[in-house]
Design goal:
By secondary structure, the protein is of the alpha+beta class. It has 24 helices and 20 strands. Strand 12 and strand 13 form a beta hairpin. The two termini are 36 Å apart. The relative contact order is 0.10.
Length: 627
């Protein structure tokens, strides 16, 4: 309903055969480049603000370029960067275009290593200089580094202090630049260590260069640069000499999947992307484990290495509810189960009146949960039919059976995403009026004043679209009652690991809890939570406690939902409105392997998350209250 921005998708490719092999087998040496394009397009849902790609050519003579990069801004960035790359080939003859040997020697982006990135900014920083991949140049091929990632760090301040204490001078105070300098610094040390080793062995000139490139071990680089990274991440990198890596955070917050055969090694943020791009089954694709890295050396030899000790595994559950493509076999099942598990609270909300209820969904990401909800209600209805038949006490007649069996769950596509609000319409009242019509309705889809309308969404975070558009537009159908259903629990806390929700005032659940405390003369609860939070400032983040939980503690989920309805229902709404949320228990039952639920529970997986929620709460209270 309200699109959450989610930071980034990655794609990485290593070709394991010479370019001539792909030209002969697939009719083009651009096999790797084409697969990168497909993998990036299939992850377009993960980032629509910018895109970039990088390529490394393994065979290049001194003085020839071997590392290439292209970046662009905007929702059409993928098309733009690949169009720019292909513009290098537009004046070639057909013979040149199909000559892999010529491509290797003469053409940019004709390499064996590729890396792509899609960006959503959750930091508020924009512009081409913040678009991945980032690039660090050096005259030593092995010291060249390009980096991209799906990540957010919570402790940039600490890392910045560490690397400046070592004498480094990062060009910008941004997490990607700082990571680039960190990894780059350790890469420099690794190369220098090997240089000294080679000199002691009596090697000289280019023999030293080749020996360094053959011996370099990126696990050493990652083990010395990444231990202090607090946050969720999958970071990918390539060196100018042909090393490649992808490393995942120790909590497993951000996802990464990889596949290998005798032709290619690939990594992506989502499993079905690899399935589609390479036409391979799900069980041949592996998940990068927490703290683990996929390492590929210059020769194309790959291995897994444990870079950081795994922590308590907390993969992001929002990946399953909302962000990742629903075409993944497990995610599809999980989203259906999220809808199915809501049958009981929905029945309570409609007073068990299934006959006079129409079920629908908010397009488009809630569609799979909608199918699960329908399946759950079909099962419920079948049980009712069995009971009614059994209750007859005699052999039923054809008419009796037909009457019982003809009852169906009524589902309609009630809400339609109708327009995209254009940013050039900036005037407040005009903009608000247009926003109210982002969704349209299917007139005649329910019986006015008799039918309830149950409409499911994947999440309700801010509630602004509900208030500005959804409830008012649904009320035009004159339902007796509108039940808004969220397939995820109440979002109560900010995220600091890659989702664009970092401040307290964004959350309708938080606003409702604050309003309840004020209504019931319990403002002292707010003051106590603030004092405890303020007293923690300056403590090591590992010692901090999330006292924001005390704001919610006095109330049940139902009380908070009821207050939300008061805050979100527009004046003049005729229908009764109720909001039904998924429970945290229901979430874990549906997604048992993705237990990261900090935005719902406040249980942050890393100390940095607790530190940042502490500061966000202090900032909110100091702006709104005087204690």
């Amino acid at each position: 309903m309200e699109p959450l921005k989610h930071e980034c998708g990655v794609a990485m490719i290593r070709l394991l055969k010479p370019l001539e092999y792909y030209q002969e087998k697939y009719g083009t040496w651009m096999y790797g480049l084409n697969k990168l394009y497909l993998m990036m397009e299939k992850q377009h849902n993960r980032g629509q603000e910018a895109a970039g790609l990088a390529c490394v050519k393994l065979q290049a003579n001194p003085g020839e370029e071997y590392m290439f990069r292209e970046r662009a801004l905007g929702s059409g960035a993928i098309t733009e960067i690949f169009s720019t790359v292909h513009a290098n080939f537009k004046d070639l003859t057909q013979d040149q275009l199909h000559d892999a040997e010529y491509a290797k020697k003469c053409l940019p982006f004709a390499g064996e290593l590729y890396m792509g990135h899609l960006r959503y900014s959750t930091t508020g920083k924009s512009g081409i200089s913040y678009v991945h991949p980032f690039l660090r140049r050096n005259n030593w091929r092995a010291k060249n580094l390009t980096l991209c990632g799906n990540f957010n760090l919570t402790n940039v301040d600490e890392i910045f202090a560490d690397i400046t204490a070592d004498g480094q001078h990062p060009r910008k105070y941004a997490d990607t630049y700082i990571m680039l300098e960190q990894v780059g610094h350790r890469l420099d040390r690794e190369v220098e260590r090997l240089f000294k080793q080679c000199k002691e062995e009596g090697l000289k000139g280019m023999d030293i260069t080749h020996a360094i490139e053959d011996r370099i071990d990126l696990s050493n680089v990652l083990k010395t640069s990444s231990p202090k990274w607090d946050g969720g991440y999958v970071i990918c990198g390539m060196t100018g000499s042909g090393e490649q890596f992808a490393v995942r955070d120790p909590w497993g917050i951000r996802p990464g999947f990889w596949y290998k055969d005798d032709e290619i090694i690939v990594l992506a943020s989502e499993r079905p992307v690899i399935q589609t791009a390479l036409n391979v089954p799900a069980d041949s694709i592996h998940e990068l484990e927490p703290g683990q890295a996929l390492l590929i050396n210059k020769k194309g030899e790959s291995r897994l290495a444990q870079i950081n000790e795994p922590k308590v595994k907390k993969p992001c559950s929002f990946e399953r509810i909302y962000f990742s493509r629903g075409s993944d076999i497990d995610i599809y099942r999980e989203r259906k189960q999220l809808g199915k598990s809501l049958v009981a609270p929905i029945l309570k909300a409609i007073n068990n009146d299934v006959v006079h209820t129409v079920f629908s969904f908010i397009p488009n990401t809630a569609e799979v949960a909608f199918y699960g909800m329908l399946e759950g209600f079909d099962n419920y209805l079948n049980q009712l039919k069995v009971k009614r038949i059994e209750a007859l006490g005699h052999k039923p007649s054809h008419t009796e059976l037909e009457q019982i069996l003809s009852q169906r769950i009524r589902s309609e596509k009630v809400a339609i995403k109708d327009i995209k609000l254009r940013t050039f319409i900036a005037e407040g009242n005009t903009r608000n009026d247009l926003a109210a019509h982002v969704y349209d309705i299917t007139y005649g889809s329910l019986v006015p004043y008799q039918d309830n309308l149950v409409i499911i969404d994947d999440s309700i975070v801010r509630g602004t679209t509900l208030k500005q558009s959804i409830i008012s537009i649904l009320d035009r159908l004159h339902p007796k009652k509108i039940v808004i259903v969220s397939s995820s629990p109440q979002v109560r806390y900010p995220d600091y690991y890659g989702i664009d929700m970092a401040s307290m005032e964004q959350f309708i659940a938080f606003k409702a809890a604050i309003a309840l405390l004020e209504d019931r003369n319990m403002v002292d609860v707010i003051g106590e939570a603030y004092k405890k939070s303020k007293a923690q400032v300056g403590l090591p983040k590992e010692q901090m406690v999330n006292y924001v939980k005390e704001i919610y503690a006095p109330f049940t989920d139902e009380e908070i939902s009821k207050k939300m309805v008061e805050l979100l229902t527009p004046e003049g709404t005729q229908a009764e409105v109720e909001i039904v949320y998924q429970t945290i228990e229901g979430l874990h039952e549906a997604c048992p392997n993705h237990t990261g639920d900090w935005y719902f529970s406040g249980d942050y997986p890393t100390p940095g998350g607790v530190k940042l929620v502490n500061q966000a709460f202090i900032d909110y209270i100091e702006a709104k209250f005087k204690f």
